[in-house]
Amino acid sequence: MSTRLAKGGRLLDKGRALHFTFNGKRLKGHAGDTLASALLANDQMLVGRSFKYHRPRGIVASGAEEPNALVHLGEGARMEPNQRVTTTELFDGLTCTSQNHWPSLEYDIGAVNTHLARFLPAGFYYKMFIHPRPFWKHVYEPFIRQSAGLGKATNPGDPDRYEHFYHFCDVAVIGGGVAGLQAAVAAAEAGAKVLLMEQTAHWGGRAPVDGGEIDGQSAEDWITATLAKLRDMPNVTLRLRCMGAGVYDHGYLLGYERVNDHAPSTDTPRHRLWRIRAGQIITATGAIERPLSFAGNDIPGVMLASAIRDYAVNYGVSIGDRTVVVTNNDDAYRTAITLKKFGLEIPAILDARQSGGGALAAEARALGIRVENGKGIAKVKGGKRVTGVAICAQAGEGAVLEEIKCDAVAMSGGWSPVVHLWSHCGGKLLWDSAQAHFRPDPANPPRGAKGEAFVVVAGSANGNLDLAATLTDADTAGKTAAAAMGHKPKSTKAPTATATDEAALEAVWLMPQGANIKLRMKSWLDYQNDVKVSDVQLAAREGYESVEHAKRYTTLGMATDQGKLSNINGLAILSDALGQPIPQTGTTTFRPPYTPISLSAIAGAARDAVFQPIRKTPIHGWHEANGAHFEPVGQWRRPYCFPKGEETHRDAVNREINQTRARLGLLDASTLGKIIVKGPDAGRFLDMLYTNVMSSLKPGKCRYGLMCNENGFLMDDGVVARIDEDTFLCHTTTGGAESIHGHMEDWLQCEWWDWKVYTANVTEQYAQIAVVGPKGRETLAKLTTDDLSNDALPFMGWADLTLAGMPVRAYRISFSGELSYELAVPASHGRALWDALLEAGAEHSVTTYGTEGLHVMRAEKGFIMIGDETDGTVIPQDLGMGWAISKKKDDYLGKRAQERSHMADPNRWKLVGLETLDGSVLPDGAYATAPGHNANGQRMTQGRVTSTYFSPTLGRGIAMGLVHNGPDRMGDVLDFPKVDGGIIKAKIVDPIFFDKDGEKQNV
Length: 1003
Hints:
alpha+beta; seven-stranded mixed β-sheet; elongated
C-alpha cells in the first residue's frame, strides 16, 4: 500500500497539517503537498475511470503529463472539472470528487464495457452508428450525448476575478529548471531584460530529485544561489506557477499564471493571462518520461519511474513496499536506488536491454538489488491495484518465466523532449535514433518576418539529457538570445557538472517485442481514451496510414493530456505496422495551449457588465438629461428620438424630421467609424478596397465609396476624405468600424504586407456632429469668421474651420438630402461644440434628432443602409449602384467574384421603391409572393422589404425592397401577406421619393 515515509519530503512543511476531502472522505496532508501526493499518502490508489471502458485508473505521473487523475475540484460556483491532481497544490479545506463513473468510483456499472472490449475496437462507432438509420435519432444520438464528455460542466456565476497582463522583454525563458535558470543568468548578465517563467510552484526542475553536483555544490544549493543572483538583478522578472502556453508569430507569447489556486482565500485574481512580446524566446521546458507498453500497464500502481522517485524525494510518499522497476534505459535505476536507500524493497529491475545498464546498474547491484537483463513484463496482475507481475523474455512472445509479488511498478521507456512550444510557430523536428525521440532541428527554427530565428531551445528540451550537457547548452542559449537582441554576452564559462556514465538506450515500443494479440489488447497507449496497441495496428490495417488520420480514427492523443505520454509510443507502433521508419510517419500537430487554460482567464475582466462595455459618445450625458430614448447600435447607445411631454416615439420622430427639413436639426454622429489610412501606398490600397477609384481624389475633397468582400458582396459604405497626398480618412458605418479596420489590417498583413500603408481606428478620438437643414450655414456663420459659401466649401468638400474658438474639420456631406455639415472635433471638445450649436441655432428653433429620423430621411432620399438593404448576399449591382464601380481600374476586392455567372445574371432581385396603394406602412421584412409553391409547399416569393417607414415629409408609408427584376417592372403591383392573413398591395416605384435632383443638399 502507498503511505507516508519517515524520511523524504523536501518540499513539505510537516509541522503544518492540511485537511481535505475526496469523494466525501476526510483525509490529511501537509503544506507543500500536491493533491496527488496527499492522495497517495492516504493510500488512495484508485482515483478515476477511463473514458471508454471505465477501467480503474490510478496516478501515473507527477506533472502536467498526467492523463488519469482528473477530478472535480471545489464546490458550487467554484467547481471545476478535469483538474489534474498532480498539478493541484493542496490547501486546507480542499474538496474534490472523482469523475466518469456511476454509481461510485469503486463500483462503476460502466466497467461492463471492459468485457465488451473485443466488440468495441477503434473506430467501431463509425461502422455501428449508421445502421439502421432510424436508430440514430432515438437510440444512438441519446446514448452518445449521455456518454459524451469527461466531468460535469461548471455551475454558472464564477465568483472569482481574472485579469490580463501585458509584458515586454528582450528574452523570455520558459521553464525554471537548471537549464532555464542558467539561460536566464547568461542573458541577464549580458544586459537583456529577462522574464523567467516556471509552471510549477518550485524552481530547479528535476535536478534536486535526480542528484548531481554543479560547480562543486549540490544541485539544490546551486539553484538557491542562482535564484539569489537573479532576484538581485533589476532586469529580471521571475514568475512561479506561470506556464508558457503558446508561442505565436512575431515573438508573441502567451503565459498562464495560477495566482491563487493554492490559496483561494487570498484577495487576488485567481488566474492571470500574460500577453508577452519577446524579442527572443528560450524554451527550457525539459523532457517527459515515456511509459512502456505491456499488458496491464494501466492498473493503479503502475507509474512512471521518475514519478515514483518524485513522490518519494519531494513528498516523502512510498507508492508501495515492493516496487518492480522495468526499463530500457539507465535513468530508471535512479528510482530503484532511491527507493532502496529509503528502506523499501526492490524485488527486481527488469532491463529490456540484453547488454544491461552502466554505472547506475552497477550501483544498484552493489545495493543488493536483483537486475535481470533482456527481460520484460508479460503482464501485470491485479485489478484496482497492482498485486504482482509476470516476467518474460523481451525477445520472446510473452511466455511467463516467473511471477513476482509487488504492489507498484516503476516503468521507464526513455525520455521525450517537450518540443510543443518550439513547434507551435513552425519549428521543425529531427528524429534522434540514439535516444529514440524527436528533438528540435536547429537548422529550422521558428522564424520572424525577416527570416530571423526567434526561438532557442535549452537543456533537455533540446535532447540533452545529461546534466553537464544541459548546463552548457543552456548557457549557450542565453548568450545567443541576448546577442540576437543586440547585447554583448559576457565571456564566462558555463557551470560544470560531472557527467554520468550511462549505457545506451534501446528503443522498446512493445513488451515483449513479439507479444501475442491477447497481450496487445491489454497494452495501453492512451490511458484516458483507452487506446491500445492493437487499436493502432487495426487502424493501419484499415488504411489509416497518415498519423493524423490514425489519431482521429483511434482517438490516440486526443485526451486532455493531448498525447504527452502516448504519442511517441503510438507513432512507433503505427510505423512498425506500416513497415516504415518513425520519421517517415511523422508527428501530429502541436497546438497551443500546452496545457488547458481556464475560459475565465481567457475572458479576463470581459464579463458581466464589461463583457461588452456600453460605449458612449462625448454628448451622451446631454442626451440622457434631455429625455433621449436610446437604442443599441453595435456597442454604442444612440438616441432613437427625443420625445417631449406626452409625445409617442412616432410623434417625436415626425416632429424631428419636419423641423430638420424646414429649419435646423442636430445629430450626434460621433459613432460613425473613422479610420486613418496613411502612407505612400494609401491610394493604391484604397483602390483595392473600394469599388471606385480613391487615388484620384484631390486633397480637400470627399468621395462616397462601396466596399465589398472577396466574394463580391457589399460589406460597408462611407465617405472617404483625402487629407493630404499620403493621408485619407475613411468613414464607415457605426457597426462596421472595428470589423472594417480588422479587414484592412488582414489584407495589409497577410496579402499586401510590403505596401507602405498604416491604418489607425480613431473613431473614439473625435466627436462628430451633423448640422442639417436650410438654416445650417446661417447658424454656423454665427460661430466663425471663416468663409462658408458654396464656393469655399462645396458639396463633397471639407475644410478646417474655427467654430466658437474650437478647431473643427467640416465635411460637406449629407445623409438626409438637406444642406448638411458634419463637424469633427477632438472628443474633449464634443460637448462644448454641441452646446454652442444649440445656442446658435436657438433662433431657428433647432431640434435634435435621433437614429430613426436619420433613417427615415435617408429612405426618403433612396440612400441605402448597410444591414438593411444588404444581408451578405447583395452586390452593388443589385442596388442599382453600378455608377459606384469604376470601369478604369483592373481590380478591386470582389471584382472577379461579381463576374461569376450567378452574380452577373440580370435575373436577380434588385432595389426598388415600394408605395402601398392605401398609404399604409409595409411590415419590415415582408415578402412579396409569386404564383406557385415550392417543394415544401410554401408560397413562391419574388421580393422582400428591406426598409419601411412612415414619411412625414410625404404623409404616407414608403419602403425600399429587393424585387425580382424590379427596375424593369415599374408600376407593377405586388402582394405582401401580413401575419394576420391579410394582404397589403404595393406598387413598384423609383426608390428616390424626395428631391430626386438633389437641389436641397447643393445650395
